[in-house]
Fold this sequence. Notes:
Elements: E1 4-12, E2 16-21, E3 24-30, E4 43-52, E5 57-62, H1 65-75, H2 82-90, H3 94-102, H4 106-109, H5 117-127, E6 131-133, E7 139-141, H6 150-161, H7 166-176, H8 183-196
Parallel strand pairs: 3-5
Antiparallel strand pairs: 1-2, 1-4, 2-3, 4-5, 6-7
Amino acid sequence: xxxxxxxxxxxxxxxxxxxxxxxxxxxxxxxxxxxxxxxxxxxxxxxxxxxxxxxxxxxxxxxxxxxxxxxxxxxxxxxxxxxxxxxxxxxxxxxxxxxxxxxxxxxxxxxxxxxxxxxxxxxxxxxxxxxxxxxxxxxxxxxxxxxxxxxxxxxxxxxxxxxxxxxxxxxxxxxxxxxxxxxxxxxxxxxxxxxxx
Length: 197
């Protein structure tokens, strides 16, 4: 699995970009290839997600880790594949997307390509409360906002990965904020609290 690639941007097409690293040209599918226009023949860093299918190994690329996190959340929803998720990311209205998910605005979600009513409802069900807005106006996946307590941040992220909802974890964060334990301790203690619940 790849996390990112650093190399020279050598080609832009309507669907993908090509980044050359160590003599190999990697085809990377991105939401808006032309957003890379200013970087042609320059060194770039592209965050990656690899999809392996029977007939192909595909790389999907992103300008930032936050953009990649939004994409990963989208493809976790039943009925949304990587191409559809890229189309949603391409609209570049993450604030609108998150507001629609959190407010159950099915009509807005159905404006995205290949998103029908059933998939829009599934998006609301699976993703409501899982995003927060960063101070700069970017959308971050819930749990990625950093506090002064890095082990607690890591624990919250691990609990989100296990499937706990962001709303459940707000109480956990508030309870432990200001303490100085290890990530492992926070996870174990939080799981006990969540199970008592």
